[in-house]
Amino acid sequence: MPQPKKDTPLRSDAQRNRERILRVAMVELTLRADVPLSEIAKKAGVGQATFYRNFPHREALVLEVYRYEMQQVSEAATELLDTRAPEQALREWMDRLAGFAMTKAGLANAIRLVTGAPGGPAKPGPTPMTDAARTLLRANEEAGTIRPGVSPEDFFLAIAGLWQIDPHEDWQPRAARLLDIVTDGLRAGAPGRDRTTGDRTR
User: Fold this and answer.
1) Is the per-residue pLDDT at 138 higher than 90?
2) Cα(66)–Cα(128) distance, rounded to whole angstroms?
3) Which of 138, 155, 162, 182 is the most exposed place for a label (fewest CB within 10 A)?
4) Are 84 and 136 a contacting pair, CB within 8 Å?
5) Distance between the two ends of the chain, CA-based, in angstroms?
């Protein structure tokens, strides 16, 4: 009879350590692009050996923070569709996307530091986010809650103003107003809405 694998708990602990490092690094790098890695390790509650086993250099950490946050937002699209109506799922995902935009803006200096050096790694592409937007837009188009034919490229062009908001100011009200305007635009011409009042048709 095969023996149970004894290293499963270790793998689980290692995953938790890695995610804790990423969460702390996201906050610290947003505040200060050149924060010492030793400070991140200390605040994450892990030893130097554990830290460098996961992230052997700054480049690996910064890009993984960016990928991690982008993946979390992307995966939220499916989770929201599982528990919300398509229209509500899209709007809540847009709010999460605004938070990601502020994180990305704060990380911009750190990303430039590691990708701008000669021979440095390439910046991760936006593919997971594009796929998530496509999923949400398709679900809403099928439900008749947005105008037909909106592509992910259209959507990201419409919300591009998020990346112009200063993450150090009180950004939530400005982001919410922008997303309300975009939401109203997506609703205009939706087949599931009354053309005169904008209300959902039964």
Assistant:
1) yes
2) 12
3) 138
4) no
5) 60
